[in-house]
Amino acid sequence: MTATYTFDIFSSLDGFGAASGNWTGYWGKQGPELLDHRLALYDQEQRMVFGANTYRAFAQMVAASTEESEVRDPWVTRMRNLPATVVSSTLEGSLDWPDATVVRGDAVDIVARLKKESEVPLRSHGSLSLNRALMAAGLVDRVQVTIFPVITGQTGLDPIFQGAADFDLELIESRTLDGHTQELIYRPILHI
Question: Rounded distance, CA 111 to CA 51, Å?
């Protein structure tokens, strides 16, 4: 049986994964329903998959945070304690992540092998370039995008699908959280 791979991403309405300026995490739009839902998602047994840049960003954010900051929301703490595979040709030494392993090589080959061998679902939060390559290779089973009610046309960073292949999306599930944030789960199908 092949493990399901979910590309899990936060986005502004205009498709950016982050923003500069005075935007805070979650673009300041997090609410209790969103945070409870995220914790429930990450309470499930699964393996995380990260690219080196996303791993570095998460590790740096956690190291620079305090117990009270939103960086340490319970779902983030739970994510950090899940087993993780970090795909990298540049990371050296041990990782500041409780159960993470660095795997070197081609990301497509690594994730294809993980999908065949893993007894639990695979999930990647962020890791944009990694997941664009995995989508093009047909390895992403679900794209789970949480769309926050903001437009960051002037301050948007990290366009999520910039340079991606073309895909048709089959809607699998949708929900509204806290009355304003949309979570959409799609099955991507390469558009030919």
Answer: 11
According to DSSP, residue 26 is labeled: G
DSSP assignments along 31-62, one per residue: -HHHHHHHHHHHHS--EEEEEHHHHHHHHHHH
Q: Which domains does the chain have, with CATH numbers?
A: 5-190 (3.40.430.10)
* Per-residue pLDDT tens over the stretch 88-107: 999 887 888 889 999 999 99
Q: Which residue has the tokens 């923003």?
A: 19
- pTM score, whole prediction: 0.94
**3-state DSSP: the chain helix, strand, coil percent, rounded to 5?**
30, 30, 35
Beta bridge mates, 174: 184
String of DSSP letters for 92-131: -S--SSTTEEEE-S-HHHHHHHHHHH-SS-EEEES-HHHH
Cβ contact 177:37 at 8 Å: yes
Using one digit for the tens of pLDDT, what is the confidence trace for 37-82?
999 999 999 999 999 999 998 888 877 766 666 667 889 889 999 9
- Dihedral of CA atoms 105, 3, 51, 137 in degrees, nearest 10, equals 70
| DSSP code of residue 163 | T
Over the range 89-111, which residues count as b (16 or more CB within 10 Å of their CB) and which as e?
Answer: eebeeebebeebebbeeebbebb
